[in-house]
Amino acid sequence: MTDFLSSYRILTLCVMIKGTEKEPYFWHVVLPNLPQRSVADLESLIILTGLDQEEAQIDLNDTRYPKLVDVHFSMLVPSSFQIHGGAFKFTSFNSSSLRKFICTKLSMTVIESLDLLSSCPSLEESQLNITQVNGSRMPVSMPQIHLRCLRKLFLHAESAITFSTFIEVLTLPVVEKLHLFYDWSATAFQSLAHRSHYFPHLRNFDLTGTPTAVVDAGALLALMPCLTSIYLPCLSTNDIIFDHIALDSLASGSLAPRLQTLSAGSTSNTGSFLDMVESRMQNAQMSSNRVPAPFTNVVFRPHYLDSSDCLRLQDMQQRGIPIHYRYRRQ
After folding, report:
1. Which InterPro entries does the UniProt entry name for this protein (predicted)?
2. What confidence tier does 50 reach under pLDDT thresholds 50, 70, 90?
């Protein structure tokens, strides 16, 4: 394989490897042994690999890969299977050209993830799966990392503590899309929003994790005033609550004035929620400055729907209001 690849100047390298325990194929032996001329123009590196019994290491640096733009590293395992540390490791990051780094299924420590972000200043999109393992404690003092190019961040954190530890040194002034998976801390997120000047470019926020405490939906939305789309999880408990203040503010447009797509998670006050949607649509229709923006899609998950709620929903839909409901998970 090494001899074959050495005869080319490679722009895109996609390696799909299915090693076994008896006959593992160690891709990391091939890649470092390619001559410099073969990888000097490499722009995209995609590695899809099976379970490897030997620790694999890769060094991403400008000297070795001066034109590398895109790195996608994943495992050929079922979607329900999660790898936590051990078998794969990026030894260092130092790339001024890297724009996109996608690392799914493979865990990186907090320190490794921060090393990536601080050493790749041109990074525009990143998907990280972060675990806090023994020996990966944060230094006593660590400078803030201002990510002036990062527009998309997909963050899987194994716990709220890991999430808080990771983001406490970050600033995201230009982020446009932010997805948080698994556990997260609303307090830590509030601090991140403050450091990031309340995300002036953030348009899309997806939350599929569980907060550490009950969260006021109005306070959460106030941290992201420029949002056009938000997805909140459907949880078995009222972890994210829309109170009457939040609903009234959404209706008037004083809260989330640009919001068009709302997936509201679990709601216990169905009547008040429907009132908010109708009022906002009426206010948007009468507005001369497009504030508030009209909803283009609303999904909510009521605790209970009686016959009058169902009739009202049907009437709203017939009048062109784009609202739907789904039953919440128990």
Report:
1. LRR_dom_sf
2. low
Query: Is the residue at 235 inside a domain?
Result: yes
Query: Is the per-residue pLDDT at 55 higher than 80?
Result: no
The more confident residue out of 59 and 152 is 152
Domain for residue 229, yes or no?
Answer: yes
pTM value is 0.87
Q: Would you give the distance in Å from CA 89 to the centre of its chain? A: 22
pLDDT score for 31: 79
pLDDT tens digits for range 17-34: 655 554 445 555 677 888
Report yes or no on 276 lying in a domain.
Answer: yes
Flag whether 315 is in a domain.
yes
* Structural domain for 305, as ranges: 216-329
